[in-house]
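In this section we walk through a basic example: taking a raw amino acid sequence and producing a predicted 3D structure, encoded as discrete structure tokens. The instruction is simple. Fold the sequence below.
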Amino acid sequence: IINHPPPEISANILFVDFNIPYTWFPSSFKNYIPYLQRNHFDKCDHLKSIAVVSSRAIEPDEELYANYIED
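The resulting token sequence is shown next.
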């Protein structure tokens, strides 16, 4: 679970948008990509994705915080 940090704590993860070209996947994987309609490959050349990236080392059992509100 990723929460918004309380005022006294900084976020320790970031959300990063990126695109994966469909050519990166072997064509046999098309059926295993979630939320993808069969004809989507003909209309678009990439899959929109979001990576969760830590901004520092995360300790075991440490809660994950991301800023949900943009400044």
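Looking at the output, two observations stand out. The chain is about 5% helix and 30% strand. The first helix runs from residue 40 to 43. In the next section we compare this with other chains.
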